[in-house]
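#help-structures
NK: newbie question, is this the right format to request a structure? protein is HTH tetR-type domain-containing protein
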Amino acid sequence: MRATRPRNRRELIIAAARELFSRDGYANAAMSDIAAAVGIGPSALYRHFGGKQELLHAVVTEALDSCLAGLYPAGPGELDVLVRDFAASALARRELGVLWQREARHLPREQYAELSRRLHAARRTLAGQLTAARPGLDPAHTELLSWGTLGVAASLAYQHVELTTPDLVARLMRRVATSAPPGLGEPRPGAPRGALRHRSRREALLAAATELFAERGYASVSLEDTGAAVGIAGQSIYHHFASKHDLLATAVHRGVERLWVDLAEVLASARDHAGALRHLVWRYIRMALVSRHLVTVIATEAEHLQEADRLRTRQFQRDYIAEWLHLLHAVHPAMTPAEARVRVQTVLTVVNDVARTPRLATRPGIDRALRQLGCELLELDSDPLPE
């Protein structure tokens, strides 16, 4: 007797692909892996999707729509309803942050642009809700807090914590949405591209590769692209780096060492745990705003490292987060480890997302505004800035 084909097979395929793409990365998940996860042959998979890129589009679209659905039921100004519904829908599609920030770049430009428009439309809906709930909020703060609230949702993709209810997520979203950060100036145009360059050819190549990896993804960047960015032939890169992987590993190592140096200086100068944590928030913000491409590469491209480097980077990430958790536990000993981890990852994700948003990252005062948000999310008083 032939087995009956399930009516929801397309949905099962999307669910399996969502898990594999978010866990292993689009480049590392084969169609045969997805078919095996559903318990079907590859030919059956291709009856529903013409190829892996088409499947990726379906996965990202479904995750984006499902996650953002919670933004729309609340009436004007119903902030508590808004964060409750959005926290629930974000938790149900917690993979969205990774899928959007890391994997969606593999989509054709037109599809990516269309999904980006939907995300920006959702952000404008959220901004409208904040304006209705807080009529005196100026546009600059509305933009920051709406992106920050979306950042809370995005952070869930990077958390390896079981959350049985959306209550904590809703509290963190509300904390961001009701914050009153210091004033922000008008966005400043960035320095003209190429206004100042490294004298060292090796450093110029590393900087160009880091920017390209962050903006387009490691898999989409060739050595020829990197060479062209600094005006040399791609093959000339071999005078400075052994391979494209060597470029990526060097960039990741550079970022890792920068974070550890900052951490060591914070601990050496701190008077107490709370002061150290506040100072660490500040140092991370400053680094992310100045070196946003480096932060992005560490967060999104480490999956492309060779195994030994990838394992070392993952261990670094665990160790680095553990330092934050140690400080937070010393300040709030009653806070559960799961809640502490969620709060720390939320701060890092919100900072990273704002650093990658030029209209916000170039506003005078954004560093101070982010510091206040970070301290509030960690339940810290925001004392005067360190020297």
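mod (FA): yep, format's fine, and the tokens are attached above. The chain is about 65% helix and 0% strand.
NK: thank you!
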